[in-house]
Design goal:
The chain is α+β, with helices and mostly antiparallel strands. It is built from three helices and eight strands, in the order ββββαββββαα. The chain has helices at 55-67, 142-145, 151-160; strands spanning 9-18, 24-29, 42-43, 46-48, 72-77, 82-85, 101-111, 131-137.
Length: 174
């Protein structure tokens, strides 16, 4: 295996889905080797970009595969790819040791459906559930809910899409 510093980043997309109240969709991760902290297990939908796949198409696909949601309109995009490194001690278990972290292309979507469309426990097409539950959360709370090594990326995403969400000071019930 190449040294940690020489490993590439896994191409990935992320989706910030904002409802009519300006709150953001988050799901509680069911697990995975990169989720080493049960306290910070909430995240927005995200996933890998397939070989030759357009990142926006990948964002729509990942959102659908993880949440069943199709009723969205793109409202924003971060031009550059945002990167994070995973802890060195889990590199061999996450993504078969091929990557040191992820480079992510982030999109913001307005959710135009109703909450009944969201189903994280029974993903379409036989995909394994990645979330055990979900909720709507104020955007400014997201960095504190994500696994700490992803926090700088979430801070950048929240800042970049701040104009597309409404500020809320009270968190959703946990």
């Amino acid at each position: 295996m190449p040294s940690y510093a020489n490993l590439p980043y896994r191409p990935c997309v992320g989706a910030m889905v904002v409802n009519r109240d300006g709150l953001v969709f988050i799901g509680r991760r069911t697990g995975g080797p990169e989720h080493v902290d049960d306290t910070h297990s909430w995240q927005m939908p995200q996933g890998g970009v397939d070989e030759g796949e357009d990142p926006l198409a990948a964002a729509f696909r990942e959102l659908y595969e993880e949440t069943n949601v199709r009723s969205v309109e793109r409202t924003g995009e971060i031009a550059e790819w945002l990167c994070y490194d995973i802890p060195r001690d889990i590199v061999g278990r996450a993504w078969k040791g091929k990557y040191r972290g992820q480079k992510q292309k982030w999109y913001c979507f307005r959710f135009t459906g109703d909450d009944g469309e969201i189903n994280v426990r029974a993903p379409p097409g036989g995909h394994e559930a990645e979330f055990s539950e979900w909720r709507w959360e104020p955007a400014e709370n997201l960095p504190e809910l994500i696994i700490p090594f992803k926090r700088p990326v979430y801070e950048q995403v929240v800042a970049a899409f701040a104009a597309l969400t409404r500020s809320r000071k009270i968190a959703a019930p946990r």
